[in-house]
Amino acid sequence: MHEWALAEGVVNTALEIAQNKNLREVKTLLLKVGEIQQIDLEIFDFALKELSKDTILENAEIKYENFTAYLLCNFCGHKWAFYESFNQLNEEEKEAIHFVPETIHVYIKCPKCGSPDFEITEGRGVFIEDVL
Ligand code: ZN
User: Domains in the chain, please, with CATH?
Assistant: First the structure.
């Protein structure tokens, strides 16, 4: 399970950060989640809580913040924010991208030249913003 492996990495890293900061207990774990990520947040959140049991992370409040994804056109070099294109899609298309991010190339084209050949340069994955 992808979410569990990811959660394990986050918990281990958060504990390391907490140790370096000499925290006795973690009150808040602030995470940044990319706009284009393939994790089920509900499972991920559950996994985090399970893996935090009996650690100083156990009672931490977990906060999630989105971070903006950027797309870079391979044809004309234009770079734009994912949400600019995403907001123009209908609900069905939005859902398709949410569940299968690879379909992004089907629904989104470069706003400048219309090419479907672009890369996701930022906006994937989960990062620890802070451990408090
Ligand atoms: Zn382009």
Answer: 2-131 (3.30.2320.80)
